């Protein structure tokens, strides 16, 4: 009986374990409670920055099962507040949560079970270009603005680039959403630009945008200014402009309310005719054009009135040698009759010089006592007077002045050349002729006058350079250089052939003598009617005729003597 009971009880216990016990009694043999066990572990997750990750766990065991998710990153495991379900969805991921581990602790009344750790990997994506840059068209000289926008996680930086050949090159300092180019030139036409957006996840390039540069009408940088002149003077109006291509200028005058072209006034400056008071108030402007169009300048007004004289040239300081004259001159323009009065500074006061009432004041002969004299001129008309700047007179002994330099000379071989120099100066003037010997100027013995006559020239003298040194107590000056050219001359006949008389059947002998450079050649000729004909074989200084006949009576003969320079 006890054995049967024990077997029965064992059977009930097994049935209780498999959930098959029922109806055996309310108190006897209750099944034993089991602790939790993890049946499906949470898996590691990889998400993009800003996305949420979901970790899940499955467990079995006696109810009720309780779940608590935990996380750690380089430290202890900490409960995640509110994460008490089989699945846990993280907040939007940040790079700071990259590598964080998650696990779940499952508990029931019998105990607890801890899942494996799962790792969260956070991936940052490159930025996204949300607004692409657009093509831009500007006129020459204008600036172009390219704009783009990008979004992305973390700090997004921008870098504008220019396509140079096949390479995109960063533009220094162009790191904003808008890039403004320098003033465009025609050479910038067709350039391409783009922006690169960069964050820790990488970079993204925008579409390329093209710059189109159109030729612009000229830009006037300086408008003509109003001009005020004295009657009888000319006025000059000037315009300055920049622009592409060829720029054309056409000046215009306002005539009864209409702008009319001025003939031949097609330069950057317009110079009027000598004006009269009737021209007062005239308005002019310049129409500046190129292939793209034209731009008129602002108008400029011409004012004409009688004014004080205008000194064009002030008297200049004069430095002369003692005994020489000095002349001070002034030039002026102005309306009406101009009157001149020269003055000298005397003891600190300007004093009029009697009879010095012309544009020039002439001192016939200076002396050392005139050194330091100061002069000026007062110029007057009906409008008033003006004074020139003061000019000083310096008187001192000076170097000689060569008034006529020696000139190149050409002579024939054997001739003599004469070189001449003239000079003025104080004291005793001394002359020394020199010739260039290699690289050094060498004095020519006894050549100490105004003129130097060479010895008889040879061809070796051709190309010689000569000059003259002129000296006085103040020093020396040198003339300009002059060349000696020696020409090769044709032969000179020193003895002409003489008439010959012979008896019939005899021979006659003719003789010529000549001098000359180089090799001399001889050709005897006889006069045939009006033509001189060469005698065959007669090429010596002596010609012996064949035996004569009466037919030879009265024949005329001559000899032509030649060298490289010609014939005689």
Plain-language structure description:
By secondary structure, the chain is mainly β. Helices cover 3% and strands 47% of the residues. The chain is built from one helix and 58 strands. Strands 2, 5, 6, 8, 9 and 10 form a six-stranded mixed beta sheet that branches. Strands 12, 15, 16, 18, 19 and 20 form a six-stranded mixed beta sheet that branches. Strands 22, 25, 26, 28, 29 and 30 form a six-stranded mixed beta sheet that branches. Strand 8 (101-108) and strand 9 form a beta hairpin. The termini are far apart. Residues 1-31 have low confidence and may be disordered.
Number of strands: 58
Radius of gyration: 59 Å
> Tell me, what's the shape?
elongated
Strand content: over 45%
CA(first)-CA(last) distance: 182 Å
* Structural class computed from helices and strand pairing: mainly beta
Mean pLDDT: 90
Uncertain runs: 1-31
Specify the helix fraction band: under 10%
Total helical segments = 1
What can be said about the biggest beta sheet?
6 strands, mixed
Features:
3% helix; 568 residues; six-stranded mixed β-sheet; disordered N terminus; mainly beta; 1 helix
Concise structural overview:
This protein is mostly beta strands and 568 residues long. The relative contact order is 0.06.
Topology:
Elements: H1 2-17, E1 37-40, E2 45-48, E3 54-56, E4 58-60, E5 66-72, E6 78-79, E7 87-89, E8 101-108, E9 111-114, E10 118-123, E11 128-131, E12 136-139, E13 145-147, E14 149-151, E15 157-164, E16 167-170, E17 178-180, E18 192-199, E19 202-205, E20 209-214, E21 219-222, E22 227-230, E23 236-238, E24 240-242, E25 248-255, E26 258-261, E27 269-271, E28 283-290, E29 293-296, E30 300-305, E31 310-313, E32 318-320, E33 326-329, E34 331-333, E35 339-346, E36 349-352, E37 360-363, E38 373-381, E39 384-387, E40 391-395, E41 401-404, E42 409-412, E43 418-420, E44 422-424, E45 430-437, E46 440-443, E47 451-453, E48 464-472, E49 475-478, E50 482-487, E51 492-495, E52 509-511, E53 513-515, E54 521-528, E55 531-534, E56 542-544, E57 557-563, E58 566-567
Parallel strand pairs: 2-10, 12-20, 22-30, 32-40, 42-50
Antiparallel strand pairs: 1-4, 3-7, 5-6, 5-8, 8-9, 8-10, 11-14, 13-17, 15-16, 15-18, 18-19, 18-20, 21-24, 23-27, 25-26, 25-28, 28-29, 28-30, 31-34, 33-37, 35-36, 35-38, 38-39, 38-40, 41-44, 43-47, 45-46, 45-48, 48-49, 48-50, 51-53, 52-56, 54-55, 54-57, 57-58
